[in-house]
Amino acid sequence: MGQPIIKINNLSKCYRIGAKETGYKTFRESIIDGISAPFRNLKQLQRLTKFNNNGDDERSNDIIWALKDISFNVDEGEVVGIIGKNAAGKSTLLKILSRITEPTGGIIEINGRVSSLLEVGTGFHPELTGRENIFLNGAILGMRKKEIEQKFDEIVNFAEIEKFLDTPVKRYSSGMYVRLAFAVAAHLEPEILLIDEVLAVGDISFQKKCLGKMEDVAKGGRTVFFVSHNMGAIRQLVSKCILLDEGKIIFNGEKNECISKYLHHNFSENKNYRMFPDHVPGEEFPVVIKGIILMDENSNSKSTFNLGESLTIEILLEAKAKGTRFQAMVQIQNEFGVFIYHCVSVDAGKPFFSSGLYSKLKVTFPKLKLYPGKYSVNIGVYRPGLSTIRMDKIESAISFTVDQSAGLDEIRPLGKGDAVVHEVPKWEIEYAQ
User: Least CB-packed of 1, 90, 115, 337 within 10 Å?
Assistant: First the structure.
């Protein structure tokens, strides 16, 4: 085991959200408010510019702790997976390690040059060409011009953008952006590579190519931080795993145990339905997911279904304008992080549009053939067209359990390496005479 290349001790990051909206005031209240304003503003300024770790801030409803007193070490050459549900603190941790964001408290020791790929095109200048941005990004990472020139051809070949090398990157598609950004980050040989889940933008073949490159980087003795919701990629790449939840470390250790804890932690919140009243993905999203419910063939909401029973997933959507066109996606994965169903409405010839501000989208599986076990559902809404642009997506939006049907013989529990669809075929044997 090598020496720690990263040491983190009691790291915390606190954000203060916007002020509350206040009601109208009387004329008398306005005069008093104006007189007291200088003193109140001074006190407010002191409060806004000072955080503490003694717990007083936690009682304030305009305070959010993205990370709270986390500590761990990473040895040189380790590939560390960071997993957790949305808003767990994963991206905040990588931004602090990349020196993009300053921590509120704690100590970080980093012994090595850091390269990061946190968002599409981070560190690129849109007016510069792909060629110029390779040298710019390399210089930002602390590389000498000679080092960049030695790796230049490899970067271009990996990114597959030779034809557009002298085109300003503002004209690149999101896929081209990601290919070039990843190629630069992975080929300039930093001691520490930080990767957030930006590879979802690329196509399947490029994702496989990136995973192969990350394996090569790891085998070369460099340290890698990898944030992903793809448990298959985590299981394939990392040597150990850290589970974050609400800014705290829930588990730090062996990857398979960590993945199991993550998935079971989501399943422990099992309910028949879930609403997302505070889920606001952004003003540019014209269709937003507001809720999800699971029902049987009699429209009864439930969270436990029998093998062979009908399952309907009903998704409540809110549109900002009538007539907004969209397509939808539903994924079902088992408790080991394996995707079983990936269903897109356009595959069934069903692009949708919102007839009103609210709509209900129903997806029905007439006869569940899933082995008894626990499953979770991811849902998403996309703009229609050849290039799917996500409007909204919620990972592990809801979970459910499959039981064996009454009258069936006892079915053995589903194992980690087993197939997940239950089908009893016809078995025959012929004996030679």
Answer: 1
